[in-house]
Specification:
Elements: H1 2-8, H2 12-23, H3 31-34, E1 42-46, E2 49-52, H4 53-71, H5 83-105, H6 112-120, E3 126-127, E4 130-131, H7 133-142, H8 147-169, H9 175-186, E5 188-196, H10 199-202, H11 209-218, E6 224-225, E7 228-237, H12 238-243, H13 249-258, E8 264-265, E9 268-277, H14 284-303, H15 308-315, H16 319-322, E10 327-331, H17 338-344, E11 352-358, E12 361-371, E13 374-375, H18 378-411, H19 417-423, E14 427-429, H20 445-451, H21 454-459, E15 466-469, E16 472-482, E17 485-486, H22 489-521, E18 534-536, H23 546-554, E19 562-567, E20 573-582, H24 589-617, E21 621-623
Antiparallel strand pairs: 1-2, 1-21, 3-4, 5-18, 5-20, 6-17, 7-14, 7-16, 8-13, 9-10, 9-12, 11-12, 15-16, 19-20
Helix pairs in contact: 1-6, 4-5, 5-8, 5-24, 8-24, 9-24, 11-22, 13-18, 18-19
Length: 631
């Protein structure tokens, strides 16, 4: 069972967690969902648990960073500023909170062995391919985390995975549906075409001043500029302080000497076990029978220790390790349940001990190997030591500067310069922005609320120094305000005329094209000059854009030739003639496999959506009207 849990940690969830760890340590702790919001600013409630505006802002930033990381240059920051995107993020927080609450009510908790297995497989925490407790604690410390917080987050992911698994694992694609889809995807159609140029209807387009006026009156919101602000701000950042701190070689050597144990690889032990499983809630008689069986196995091994692997394969109820003759591999302290760990680290090499009781049942354990603790050389951990010393010194300096920074911001309400000068940081200015396009670092919810408050907009005085994240204080001040305004008609006339001209051009071209398609369908092809024949598939290529390919393959082909039409990006209306359809009887197995995977994922998404709807329905969800507006 222990090994089964460790194997489970190699699945898709583990990979997702490892990916997130590689990108950021910005997970939310379970307590942020279970204890509610204590700081105010609640924008949504799931049962008795609140979701704060800061929680939403943090998750929006996290999702935005993940998108930027995965999409690279293709990422458009404007996506993360839309109301739809923020709504989606808030919905995911609501669903997550509801799922965690249900998991807690059902008593779903991650075993210690699962957490240990997950930690042991995270490369960031390894030395020489093995988990290092010292490295683990040092890396978390450098990122402002504690082992309890991080392990709580792993437990949280386990809870969500356990809730979701019955749904996702129950989905399976129909082979017949996948095969049919494969045939449709592989289908080819022979086409030719003709284009009706935009010039064919240009003379029929008339845009009158009255048309422009009517559009302007009906769409004033489109031509209204929101209130805009220009601001200045000063940032006191512990990380920036740390980057400017020089650390001497003597200080590095002294720290390494004083913390030698921290930089040692702890002792590792390898062991095998035979498990007689029994539920910890089982009655006394059931547990007694399991213990008696374990005692019998132990006595057998006392007489014939060479039979350990044989008995593990036939008698152990931990399938994963049984296949390996009971072997659990190597592990350090903190990676197994305590009774098991205490026994292993108290044994002599090749000793067999049992029965050892744990939450999983009764174990007979054999100690297979001992790898003594080893000290890592200074050269190997020098960078970690330097970072630690810089952060320690930066924490001191930040603490000394922060109070004075905040006081000077408050005492000199009309200027950030005194506080910035004292902290030796620059006062920076923004360009014009609106409430929906705040630049960083002003996009923090609490800071933006203070900066764009009526008092701040009117008096142009400093906000207080606000901690936007641990170790970062920001104070800001409004410099100028540009009120919302409706652009005058004269300023937008050309844009409106271009819009109306474009819309009418498309309308007239479509009418002309559809009339011609109707005539062609009736057999009136005489005098029509078509392009050369081309074979096309559903996959977009240089000939057809994705929407155009969909139009061609959407046409019913019971009677040929068949026709369709669409407006192209160059403004022309293209009429397409489908003259032949080629189906295939042998679909590429890789295509079939890809389709099956896609169908399975679609089914899983649909099933998960249905499950989440049911889970949310069990909780009273309240979302404030202005929850995603950022104000």
């Amino acid at each position: 069972m222990l090994e089964a849990i460790r194997k489970h940690a190699q699945g898709w969830l583990a990979k997702a967690i490892l990916g997130l760890i590689a990108l950021t340590f910005a997970f939310f702790g379970l307590e942020s969902y279970m204890a509610g919001d204590r700081s105010g600013g609640v924008i949504a409630e799931v049962g008795d648990v609140g979701i704060s505006r800061d929680a939403l802002a943090n998750e929006v930033r996290t999702q935005r960073d993940r998108m930027r990381e995965s999409m690279g240059q293709a990422f458009d920051p404007a996506i993360a500023e839309t109301k739809d995107f923020r709504n989606q993020v808030l919905d995911s927080l609501v669903e997550r909170s509801a799922m965690l609450q249900d998991a807690q009510k059902l008593g779903i908790l991650a075993p210690d062995a699962y957490v240990a297995a997950m930690l042991g497989r995270i490369p960031t925490f390894q030395e020489d391919g093995k988990f290092s407790q010292a490295r683990y604690e040092a890396i978390l410390r450098q990122n402002g985390r504690s082992p309890a917080q991080f392990e709580n987050e792993l437990r949280q992911e386990f809870m969500l995975e356990t809730m979701a698994s019955p749904v996702t694992l129950a989905s399976f694609p129909s082979r017949e549906v996948s095969a049919q889809l494969g045939r449709l995807v592989a289908q080819q159609r022979e086409i030719s075409w003709l284009d009706i140029p935009a010039a064919a209807v240009a003379s029929a387009i008339r845009i009158e001043p009255a048309d422009i006026q009517r559009y302007y009156e009906a769409n004033k919101a489109e031509f209204t500029e929101p209130q805009q602000v220009r601001a200045e701000y000063a940032v006191l950042d512990q990380a920036a302080i740390a980057s400017g701190i020089a650390v001497s070689e003597q200080a590095v050597a002294d720290y390494y000497t004083a913390h030698a144990a921290q930089f040692g690889r702890p002792e590792q032990r390898s062991a095998s076990h035979i498990l007689v499983a029994v539920d910890k809630a089982a009655d006394a008689a059931t547990r007694a029978r399991a213990k008696a069986k374990a005692e019998t196995l132990y006595q057998t091994l006392q007489k014939s220790p060479a039979r350990f692997a044989e008995l593990a394969r036939t008698e152990s109820q931990d399938p994963g390790s049984a296949e390996q003759g009971g072997s659990l591999g190597s592990f350090g302290r903190g990676m197994m349940v305590k009774p098991f760990e205490d026994a292993v680290f108290g044994m002599k090499l090749h000793e067999i001990r049992g029965p050892v009781e744990s939450d999983f049942g009764y174990h007979i354990i054999r100690l297979d190997g001992i790898e003594p603790s080893q000290a890592m050389p200074l050269a190997q951990v020098r960078g970690m030591v330097v970072d630690t010393l810089r952060k320690q010194e930066a924490q001191k300096r930040f603490a000394e500067l922060a109070e004075n920074f905040g006081n000077l911001v408050y005492e000199n309400a009309d200027s950030l310069q005194p506080a910035a000068t004292a902290a030796k940081v620059a006062v920076k200015q923004t360009d014009w922005f609106s409430a929906k396009s705040l630049p960083p670092p002003l996009d923090h919810a609490t800071l933006s609320d203070a900066l764009l408050s009526p008092e701040s907009l009117k008096n142009h005085q400093n906000t207080e120094a606000i901690e936007i994240k641990p170790g970062t204080l920001v104070a800001a001040r409004v410099l100028d305000v540009r009120p919302a305004r409706l652009k005058p008609l004269a300023e937008v006339t050309q844009a409106i005329e271009a819009r109306l001209r474009h819309d009418r051009q498309i309308s007239l071209l479509t009418q002309k094209g559809e009339a011609m398609i109707k005539a062609l369908t009736g057999g009136e092809e005489q005098g029509v000059t078509w392009s050369a024949f081309k074979m096309v598939t559903r996959q977009p290529d240089g000939l057809l854009a994705p929407a155009e390919a969909r139009a061609v393959f959407r046409v019913q082909t019971d009677k040929l030739p068949a026709y369709t039409g669409f407006v192209r990006q160059d403004g022309a209306y293209r009429i397409v003639r489908i003259s032949r359809v080629l189906d295939t009887s042998a679909v590429d197995p890789m295509l079939t496999a890809s389709i099956e995977s896609g169908v399975l994922q679609a089914q899983q998404r649909a099933d998960m959506k249905a499950m989440l709807t049911l889970v949310k329905a069990r909780h009273k969800v309240k979302i404030k009207q202005d929850a995603v507006e950022g104000r």
